[in-house]
Amino acid sequence: MTQPGVGGPGGALVRMRSNHRTAPMTIAPAPVAASQPARWSNGPWPSEATVTASATTIAVPSWAAVLSRLAARAWDWLDGFPALDLVNTVKRIGWQEREQLKDVADLDSWLDAAALPVPRPAHVDVKDLHALRALRDPALRLLHARLGRGDWLHADVEAVNTHLLAAPELVLLGEHPGQTVRYPLGDASAMTRLLAGLAADVRDATQRSDLAFCDAPGCGLVFYRRRTNQSWCGASCGNRVRVARHQAT
Q: Tell me: the pLDDT tens digits for 6-60?
């Protein structure tokens, strides 16, 4: 799975592994300053130790970081696009839609794992959780409506546009192909700028011809097709559909 950087896809999720099972290992108390720490999501592990195995030096997480990563596996379906990572926080379990942002801890974890158009706020609270879900719900209905799965409602359009107007920005061409530079207008809070950025990505998602919905059992994710005849978001969903069809015959 790729993990985007600010403003679009870029980085890669790093999984580091040593195949030297019999090599002696020594643990030093501090990371190597010259090497860049591995990143699981939008930031480095909370704390690290340096492990030397044979001639290879790698960074490994502490127990606290391992437990944090295990808790973050709830977000392993994230697609690496801000609008999709937002709306897919309503996830289908079986055939029922389930809320994945149930409390502030969920929001904090999701902000670390999701693709975001701007840097995340340093701290979030219950008010921020409600504000994000208040954007997410109309955004989800609009993307479904774009796919013919509901009505395009004026109230949902207004909800998204309100966030766009709350933190306007200039998006200019950068110095390299495909690069853009964002200039916020005004002094909106970090959360307001984040919601505006997510709203902008939702707006752009409604214009994409590769927007699709995966109606496989237990999925229900909105995704972008990688090929014109793609029906499911991934191979596992296609396999479940074929198994279900076989069992029904």
A: 444 443 333 333 344 444 444 444 443 343 333 333 444 333 343 334 444 445 5
Is it the case that residue 173 has pLDDT exceeding 90?
yes
How far apart CA 53 and CA 225 sit, in angstroms, is 41
**What's the pLDDT at 61?**
52
Q: How far apart are CA 198 and CA 160, in angstroms?
A: 9
Rg (CA), the chain: 21
Under a CB-based contact definition with an 8 Å cutoff, are residues 213 and 219 in contact?
no
Buried b (16+ CB within 10 A) or exposed e, 71-87: ebeebebbbbbbbbbbb
> Does pLDDT of 218 surpass 90?
no
**Crossing angle of the two packed helices 190-205 and 126-146, in degrees rounded to 10:** 10
Please give, one letter per residue, the 3-state secondary structure of the chain. Answer: CEEEECCEEEEECCCCCCCCCCCCEEEECCCCCCCCCCECCCCECCCEEEEEECCEEEEEECHHHHHHHHHHHHHCCCCCCHHHHHHCCEEEECCEEEECCCCHHHHHHHHHHCCCCCCCCCCCCHHHHHHHHHHHHHHHHHHHHHCCCCCCCHHHHHHHHHHHHHCCEEEEECCCCCCEEEEECCCCCHHHHHHHHHHHHHHHHCCCCCEEECCCCCCCCEEECCCCCCCCCCHHHHHHHHHHHHHHC
| Average pLDDT in the chain | 78
pLDDT computed for residue 17 by the predictor:
37
Task: Tokens for 19, please give them.
Answer: 């195949």
